């Protein structure tokens, strides 16, 4: 399993997507405001997702 890096876009929990802001030992902190329809959901701006529970959609553009 590849662990996400800061700036990666991940998908988790029935299609929610967000940008990884911080990588911890067992989880990542994800900014959900990346989604265009973010306001349609009653969610906090950020959430914690275990490494086992997400899929990397798009990698960061690291140089």
From TrEMBL:
<dbReference type="Pfam" id="PF09953">
    <property type="entry name" value="DUF2187"/>
</dbReference>
<dbReference type="InterPro" id="IPR018690">
    <property type="entry name" value="DUF2187"/>
</dbReference>
<protein>
    <recommendedName>
        <fullName>DUF2187 domain-containing protein</fullName>
    </recommendedName>
</protein>
């Amino acid at each position: 399993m590849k662990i996400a890096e800061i700036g990666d876009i991940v998908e988790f929990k029935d299609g929610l997507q967000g940008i990884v802001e911080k990588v911890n030992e067992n989880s990542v902190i994800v900014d959900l405001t990346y989604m265009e329809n973010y306001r349609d959901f009653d969610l906090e701006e950020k959430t914690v997702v275990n490494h086992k529970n997400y899929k990397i959609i798009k990698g960061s553009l690291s140089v």
